[in-house]
Specification:
Blueprint: E1 5-8, E2 15-19, H1 30-37, E3 42-46, H2 63-77, E4 82-87, H3 89-100, E5 105-111, H4 120-136, H5 139-149, H6 152-157, H7 159-171, H8 174-185, H9 191-194, E6 201-206, H10 214-223, E7 228-232, H11 239-242, H12 244-256
Parallel strand pairs: 2-3, 2-4, 4-5, 5-6, 6-7
Antiparallel strand pairs: 1-3
Helix pairs in contact: 1-12, 2-3, 4-8, 5-7
């Protein structure tokens, strides 16, 4: 799978691979990519298959498929080991990649994500939503999701963020988004494998996140020995956009505090 991607910063910089969530694209990580590239990191931000400029013919895309796509991209770019970060579904893909290819990962960023299984009702809701967006497209779905994606404070003070988030969701290809929802409904439980993660890990969550509340981040933090937890006040599900300065400061402090080996 040839993923569309941006590759910023010096080619000999510490590699950082950032994975967007649903229903977004690689522009989700633009603030962090520019920030880190300006500080000497090599930052790769792909569009997952079926999102943005990456195509797919899948009707169901498992998280293992997404993870293998990322490893294939890293191989093509000559990235043997890298810092790996993901938000929401991207965080679940990161956990899958860490399970399947642990030797590739030097450090982890898990932002606003959930390690456990869906309830039966939530699982069915993913299938129902996949059917709905396949039939009617993304616009109504995006408009319904938006108030839960970002906090009330963000909507009141950051029209630029609201417009960016709305655009990403409305323009997400409906077939790819539906395929990911079906695959995500069948994902494994990552909670039992969290204790096996032995690389430096930063866990970030918005204080107002409705989709993956602070309690979900606290569980991940408890299970991963030595991990760091940062709660971004006033942010919802997308703290990297809503409060990019606080998010970037936390990520930079985490990365500069670690020693990475090839």
């Amino acid at each position: 799978m040839n993923l569309a991607h941006d590759d910023l910063g010096p080619r000999d910089g510490q590699p950082v691979l950032l994975v967007h969530g649903h229903p977004f694209d690689r522009s989700l990580w633009r603030p962090q990519a520019e920030y880190l590239a300006g500080r000497g990191y090599r930052v790769v931000t792909p569009d997952l298959r079926g999102y943005g400029d990456s195509s797919t013919g899948d009707t169901t895309t498992g998280l293992d498929v997404f993870a293998n796509d990322l490893v294939e991209l890293a191989d093509r770019l000559g990235l043997d080991r890298f810092v790996l970060g993901g938000l929401s579904m991207g965080g679940q893909i990161v956990m899958q990649l860490m399970t399947d290819h642990p030797q590739r990962v030097q450090a982890l960023l898990l932002a606003d994500t959930f390690a456990g299984l869906d309830t039966p009702a939530a699982k069915q809701a993913r299938y129902d939503t996949a059917a709905r967006i396949t039939e009617e497209g993304m616009e109504r779905y995006a408009d319904e999701l938006l108030p839960k994606m970002i906090s009330k404070q963000t909507r009141a003070t950051r029209p630029d963020v609201e417009a960016h988030v709305r655009r990403m969701m409305r323009e997400a290809p409906k077939e790819g988004a539906a395929a990911a929802l079906r695959g995500r409904a069948e994902r494994p439980d990552y909670v039992p494998v969290l204790k096996d993660i032995d690389v430096p890990t930063l866990v970030v969550v918005g204080s107002e996140d409705e989709f993956t509340p602070v309690a979900d981040a606290e569980l991940i933090h408890r299970e991963i020995a030595g991990s760091t937890l940062v709660v971004v006040e006033g942010a919802g599900h997308l703290p990297n956009l809503e409060r990019e300065t606080e998010f970037d400061d936390a990520l930079s402090a985490f990365l500069t505090g670690k020693r990475f080996t090839p």
